Amino acid sequence: MDSSKSKDSTNSGLQETNSDINDEEKNDLCPGFKDADAFVKYGLGAVLSATKASAGLPQTGDEYDFYRSFPGFQEFCESQGDKLLHCMSQIMQHHGCRSRMRDRNKLTGLEERFDLVVDSNDVILERVGILLDEADGVNRNQQPVMPAEFQPPKIVVSSWNRMGSSSGSRSETFRLLQAKNIARPQMKFKEKVDNSNTPFIPKIFIKPNAVKPLPSCKLLLTLMFFPSVRPEDLDVPAALADFIHQQRTQEHVEDMFAHPYQYELDHLTIQESVLSKPEPQMYKPLTETKCSFIDTLDDLVALNEKLCKLSEFAVDLEHHSYRSFLGLTCLIQISSREEDFIIDAIELRSELYILNEAFTDPAIVKVFHGADSDIEWLQRDFGLYVVNLFDTHQASRALNLARHSLDQLLKHFCNVNSEKRYQLADWRIRPLPDEMVQYARMDTHYLLYIYDCVRVQLLDFNHGQPGLLQSVWNKSKDISLKKYTKPIFTEESYLELQRKQKRSFNTQQLTAFRLLFAWRDKLARQEDESTGFTLPTHMMNKISEELPKEPQGIIACCNPVPPLVRQQVNELHLLVQQAREMPLLKPEVTMFGPHDTSRVSESDLQHCSPDGKLDTLIRLIILLILELETQNDHESLSVAQMKARRIIECFENPFRMYLPSSDVHISKNAKFDPSSKIFEVIKEWKLLSMEQQQKELEAKKEANKKAKEEAKERTKKVAGNGVKLESAKGGGKKRERVASEVGESTPKPSKKQMKSAEKPQKTEPPPKDSFKPFDYSQSDLKVFAGTKSKDNTQFDPNRQAQGFKKKKTARGQKSNSGAGNRSMSYMAGKSDRGFRHNWPKR
Ligand code: AMP
Ligand code: MN
Ligand code: ZN
């Protein structure tokens, strides 16, 4: 009984302290104690004696049961228990937690109380964590961050590109360099970023070096966005009207999403000159090399002209992804053998397309190191493509070098130590600190020399045979064929992420995860922030796992609390509440939940079959579904089959993904094939079933073929031939160019000079009969400008897509403000890109 007494006194001690805190918390940190240390000392002592005392209590089992048989003991236990519960309730109340500790339901009471204690402990501990962090954060913030008072960071960062694949101690050596006060560059973008949940449409409007012209996309897009506009209503010649009509067919819609340089890349032949052994040309020392920072249009045009005269140049990009939904390219570094250039890709974002002139010139080699992302970023932000790419990363792989990072190549070939990098620096910073310019510049400065060296080695490696070198060219070409795809939100996207988490969630947790995922996606697009900034996945996991009952609990799951979470905590709270209202099913059972495919993930299917029985059951059900899907004749079904069908019909078939791939909508392959996503969307636009589309397509194809022939004949008469010939300067060879641009012939700087003759022209001549480009120079494109937003029937991808993305309404409304919001820049009045008849005079 001694032990109980000491526990009693501990309780009242805590109680006093607690109420004291209530009364005086504003005045004093630890009322009744001279400082925090004294309080901690006292607290620890109290906890220690309480623990000791509880250990002295009769053990559960026989000992306890024996004591319980004495009424005195029983009474004492109850009164002490009540006191304890009262005390705990008070503490919980003080912290704003649910605190009905004293509600006594003998059956479920203990379990519930235990839950309450766990919840409260978490909330309190998290709050402690947050406070400590805040205290810590205050200290950290005192150090100035870039750029104004720019200081070289003590811990310098390095690229994944350079560090090789071993990620061992990365966290120690990498640090995210942030500048907290950077104005969002998005604010001054001429064309608003298109975060809508629609597939990416290539931004390109002018296609230099075209062998196959662009699908007459400006018209097509205009018509897609204003589907109510009938070609006959436009003041266009009949032939053009016909043509427009045809453009509205499925085929052309698909064309629109295609890689604009697919044809050119498919027909690109590597020049003999780059397959033979070069004499490595040493790089110029950095200090003797001119480095220009390009941030005006005039300089960019001049740069383009310079580049067009070269036979090779090196390119690299710096990118920022934290404070933007899709990410944004901040810098483009270019090096020739003579000079380095750093382009401010934020400032010149809507002008950079002019570099396509050099970037897609098949006679100019573009050397990148690890171009995969670069290729996508160039497309996404500027509509830039690369024809004739050489990727030194691929070369390093083919050579079987120990490591393939640029760091390693620099060390290996140039004996340059470039370990220390600003790779994760915030490249949006302007003006760009000189240190960062220097670092950025190093990424391309040596690359052409490395290009020479690896070519020599690739040939030597293969005993002078070009096979290995050729394979690097081919791999590089594959990379330049990569298409940027926008992240598309579907009702199932969260499952992909959830699967990666390797946690098994019950129905409530999974629902929370699903709702949070959708909230995060929507808000991130709307605010143009990354999902990681909006709500990092690990926090999303924690909230889903804990399903906090109070908004405060949600805050407690996040450390540090993301600004958007703090702002919308009530909204999030409602989502968590909604999840809590789901019937609680363990993962095993979840797959049978009606109408909720969210409960079925492949990992669930795997998890929930410890003994294989479930696996078998699933297989049987799949077989049954397959059988029933193919058996349309209800009459011939057995009673069991009918029953099964009825059951299955109650479900939104969670096994669709296992059905044969002929069903495009559900095919697993198709799911991961970006072009089929597009297909899905197109399907939504057309609101047709696949079969209907298929049939319609077949029928149309035939008719179109005929009509096309006729229309082309007519358009030819109306608009003349779009093929333009230019003579190559300084040489006898002629180079055919196709004016694929809309509304005018190829716009190019008037002083543009052609490639020098020593660059062999390997590109096949355009297949004359398959491509007869239409020349719009005769048509009055201004007619499209006037039709803008007059009627509500204008195309709104969000609205159209709602059929399968019902959660997107808010976003849809936001982007409804006008099609001009999209990244496409063909709207007169919204942007002059594509309408620039001549590039700026120099
Ligand atoms: P690099 O090609 O190495 O210059 O890298 C280009 C861009 O990729 C950088 O500006 C970063 O945005 C990004 N990046 C490079 N290294 C990493 C890394 N280790 N982790 C995340 N992003 C990186
Ligand atoms: Mn790079
Ligand atoms: Zn770089």
Automatic annotation (TrEMBL):
Belongs to the exosome component 10/RRP6 family. The keyword Transferase does not apply. Residues 698-713, 755-772 have a biased composition (Basic and acidic residues). InterPro entries: 3'-5'_exonuclease_dom (IPR002562), Exosome-assoc_fac_Rrp6_N (IPR012588), HRDC-like_sf (IPR010997), HRDC_dom (IPR002121), HRDC_dom_sf (IPR044876), RNaseH-like_sf (IPR012337), RNaseH_sf (IPR036397), Rrp6-like (IPR045092). Its cofactor is Mg(2+). Residues 506-586 form the HRDC domain. It comes from Sander lucioperca (Pike-perch). Residues 9-20, 812-824 have a biased composition (Polar residues). This is Exosome complex component 10. Residues 1-26, 698-842 are annotated as: Disordered. Keywords: Cytoplasm, DNA damage, DNA repair, Exonuclease, Exosome, Hydrolase, Isopeptide bond, Magnesium, Metal-binding, Nuclease, Nucleus, Phosphoprotein, RNA-binding, rRNA processing, Ubl conjugation. One of its GO terms (cellular component) is nucleoplasm. The keyword Nuclease applies. GO terms for molecular function: 3'-5'-RNA exonuclease activity; metal ion binding; nucleotide binding; single-stranded RNA binding. Pfam families: DNA_pol_A_exo1 (PF01612), HRDC (PF00570), PMC2NT (PF08066). It comes from the Eukaryota. One of its GO terms (biological process) is poly(A)-dependent snoRNA 3'-end processing. Gene3D superfamilies: HRDC domain (1.10.150.80), Ribonuclease H-like superfamily/Ribonuclease H (3.30.420.10). Component of the RNA exosome complex. The catalytically inactive RNA exosome core complex (Exo-9) associates with the catalytic subunit EXOSC10/RRP6 (via its N-terminus). Exo-9 may associate with DIS3 to form the nucleolar exosome complex, or DIS3L to form the cytoplasmic exosome complex. The RNA exosome complex interacts with cofactors C1D/RRP47, MPHOSPH6/MPP6 and MTREX/MTR4. Interacts with MTREX; the interaction with MTREX mediates the association of MTREX with nuclear RNA exosomes. It is found in: Cytoplasm; Nucleus, Nucleolus; Nucleus, Nucleoplasm.
